[in-house]
Design goal:
Elements (H helix, E strand, L loop, with lengths): L1 E7 L2 H12 L10 H13 L10 E10 H7 L5 E5 L2 H4 L14 H4 L9 H19 L4 H4 L8 E9 H11 L6 H13 L15
Antiparallel strand pairs: 1-2, 2-4, 3-4
Helix pairs in contact: 1-2, 8-9
Length: 204
């Protein structure tokens, strides 16, 4: 898994939005400690969390499973653009057959769990998909053979209020192991001066 922060809103913009309510622009320190404290106080302590929606982050997320992609769909206040299976499954056609226990080769295409039986079955499913593609069946129909562990990537845009919710829920030890890893990777990709807004739980 690899997470890259492509773009983010500066804290100064969020502080500007908050100060619009009281017309207190003269108290701004241009995104400094006063503005940071204001954002935390109004957005978190006073629960005026809609002000945090002015902070927006765009990430490029690579190497997650399609199983995890389904979990992301539950977080509706985010925009995602996902690698298309219609146009990209051809990458499998030139591969030779996948030997059941060739985890290293398969890991190019699959998120492996570390559970040997599960990973062997995923590789078998991957080989079945490859055979279907080699027969010339269209990607639109062949993709119905995709294992849930098949890797994908996406560009994901989310505001700070929704990202707080995501990180709090998904860094919890009860969350799916892969999405816990994603929550920590997203937090680690944030600008250092934004970290104080998010509550990340310790990894298992």
């Amino acid at each position: 898994m690899n997470v890259t922060l492509l773009q983010h809103t500066s804290l100064e913009i969020c502080a500007q939005a908050i100060r619009t309510c009281w017309q207190s622009f003269d108290k701004s320190d241009c995104g400094g400690e006063k503005d940071k404290e204001l954002i935390d106080r109004v957005g978190n302590k006073f629960k005026h969390a809609s002000t945090l929606e002015h902070l927006v982050y765009t990430f490029y997320i690579q190497g997650i499973s399609r199983a995890l992609l389904q979990e992301l769909a539950r977080h509706r206040l985010a925009s995602l653009s996902v690698k298309s299976t219609r146009y990209t499954l051809k990458e499998l056609k030139n591969e030779e057959s996948f030997i059941c226990k060739d985890f290293e080769r398969a890991s190019k295409y699959l998120v492996l769990t570390g559970v040997e039986m599960v990973d062997e079955m995923s590789i078998k499913a991957l080989e079945n998909l490859r055979l279907v593609l080699v027969q010339g069946i269209s990607n639109d129909k062949a993709k119905y053979c995709l294992p849930e562990s098949y890797k994908t990537e996406l560009t994901w845009t989310i505001n700070a209020r929704s990202l707080q919710n995501f990180i709090t829920l998904r860094s919890d030890k009860s969350a799916l192991w892969e999405i816990q890893n994603l929550a920590h990777a997203l937090f680690n990709a944030l600008p250092e001066d934004h970290n104080y807004l998010f509550n990340i739980k310790e990894s298992n």
